[in-house]
Write a structure and sequence with these properties.
The complex is a heterodimer.
Chain A (H helix, E strand, L loop, with lengths): L1 E8 L9 E8 L6 H12 L18 E4 L2 E4 L5 H4 L2 E5 L6 E3 L2 E2 L2 H9 L19 H5 L18 H5 L5 H12 L7 H8 L13 H5 L6 H14 L4
Parallel strand pairs in A: 1-5
Antiparallel strand pairs in A: 1-2, 3-4, 3-5, 6-7
Helix pairs in contact in A: 3-6, 6-7, 6-9
Chain B lengths: L6 H6 L4 H32 L3 H11 L1 H26 L7 H28 L3
Helix pairs in contact in B: 2-3, 2-4, 4-5
The chains are: A alpha+beta, B mainly alpha.
Chain lengths: 233, 127
């Protein structure tokens, strides 16, 4: 099938404003958008820039807006998108070149919530045991690949990049509800701040955008409830 | 290139039903504020000065076509607010957010339909 790709282009060295370029490519319905982008880069226009790494939906490098919605280019199939596909960079981030955006504000927000295991108690002789139910409590939020599809689909983040955003809250949730971690209260205090969870207006764009199908809004809701009640169950 | 997201770009994002209901909630909230504010001001001026502008504004508010619009805005805003409050109180139901939206419209349609029916019936019978 013939596919028309309308691609956002911006080169900071030559362009004052971004533009769109259209490419016609032959594709199979089972091709991924990443396959088409790689075909264009290797055979039509070598200046096209985008991030990619594993190409299997795990590394989270190739999150971009495809037909107006955040997706991973390596998971978006042509047959689900039709023969006219628009590819644009993530919203709310500074565009460096074409689909490449400056991810630093995103990672700065991520680091704020202390996304690592904290427990100063002396370690037991063997491992820190956890029941199946305790592990299940935060299972969903362990799946995050930090692609930023959720955070950059959030109108609250578009309005203010200081808002920690769904991805940071999801990663805070992963440790707040971990029975072995001891810094839950500190993280809740951070998320109770001016740019914390209460900037979430339950719009659900994040949940719909997540390529790992994490229930992002539910995780944010649970963090809100934990702040309100002071309970972590 | 700066990170600013224009209103046009934001509105073009394909968020679907949940994003549209959020937008409609914001717009209906502002519309209620505007309606109540103007209603209070026009009533005040009508009583104090009896100005034609205030009287005309009141005639518009009380027209049944305007009331059909106002009841849509108020009933939608109330039900959508209730949905958000329920989901905020019990986050475990957030998994069913799409079903909650359908349920909201399922409740909205008969309430709004009945309201329109009563409004039209009253106006046709001159009540």
């Amino acid at each position: 099938m013939q596919v028309t790709l309308k691609i956002f282009r911006f080169n900071p060295e030559t362009d004052k404003k971004p533009s769109y370029k259209t490419y016609q490519v032959e594709a199979q319905p089972t091709d991924r958008v990443l396959d088409l982008l790689e075909y264009i880069k290797s055979t039509i226009d070598g200046t096209l820039s985008f991030r990619r790494s594993c190409a299997h939906g795990i590394c989270g490098s190739d999150a971009m807006r495809i037909n107006g919605r955040n997706r991973l280019a390596c998971k978006a199939l042509v047959k689900d998108l039709g023969n006219r596909i628009t590819v644009e960079p993530l919203l709310g981030m500074r565009v460096l070149k074409d689909m490449i955006v400056d991810m630093e504000p995103f990672f700065e927000n991520y680091r704020q919530v202390m996304p690592y295991f904290i427990n100063d108690e002396p370690p037991p002789a063997r491992e820190r045991l956890q029941s199946i139910e305790e592990r299940e409590r935060f299972d969903d939020t362990t799946k995050c690949i930090l692609c930023a599809a959720c955070t950059t689909s959030c109108p609250s983040f578009w309005a203010n990049e200081k808002y920690v955003g769904p991805a940071a809250i999801v990663n805070a949730h992963r440790f707040i509800f971990d029975s072995r971690d001891r810094a839950g209260k500190e993280r809740l205090d951070i998320l109770n701040g001016q740019f914390g969870v209460y900037r979430c207006h339950t719009i659900f764009n994040c949940t719909d955008a997540c390529p790992r199908e994490i229930q992002v809004t539910k995780a944010i809701g649970e963090v809100k409830a934990a702040i309100a009640t002071g309970k972590l169950d | 290139m700066n990170r600013r997201v224009s209103l046009k770009e934001g509105l073009k994002y394909q968020g679907g039903g949940p994003m549209l209901s959020w937008l409609l909630h914001r717009i209906s909230g502002l519309a209620i504020l505007l309606f109540v504010g103007l209603h209070v001001i026009s009533s005040f001026f009508m009583q104090q000065t009896g100005s034609d502008l205030a009287t005309n504004l009141n005639i518009i508010y009380e027209s049944w076509i305007f009331q059909i619009l106002v009841t849509f805005i108020v009933i939608f805003h109330a039900l959508n607010g209730l949905r958000i409050a329920i989901l905020d109180i019990w986050p475990r139901f957030l998994v069913y957010q799409r079903e909650a939206l359908w349920l909201q419209w399922f409740i909205f349609i008969p309430i709004y339909g009945l309201t329109i029916f009563i409004l039209i019936q009253r106006n046709l019978s001159g009540g």
